[in-house]
Specification:
Layout (H helix, E strand, L loop, with lengths): L1 E3 L9 E4 L4 E7 L2 E4 L8 E4 L3 H6 E6 L1
Antiparallel strand pairs: 1-6, 2-3, 2-6, 3-4, 4-5
Family: Belongs to the peptidase C40 family.
Keywords: Hydrolase, Protease, Thiol protease
Organism: marine sediment metagenome
Length: 62
Amino acid sequence: LASVSKSDLRPGDLVFFKNFSHVGIYIGNGNFVHAPHTGTRVRVESLSNPYRLKNYCGACRI
């Protein structure tokens, strides 16, 4: 796995939150797709969401 800076994110990169306990897939234009909680629908969310900014841990490329 290669670590990726936020400014170099590409669609398909994995983005991590909350001490690496939550992961999403970056889809471009500052957005990522994820399932917020067990049993909830997958949704698109912005990386600039204040909660996500606070809990962002990093990203990697596979």
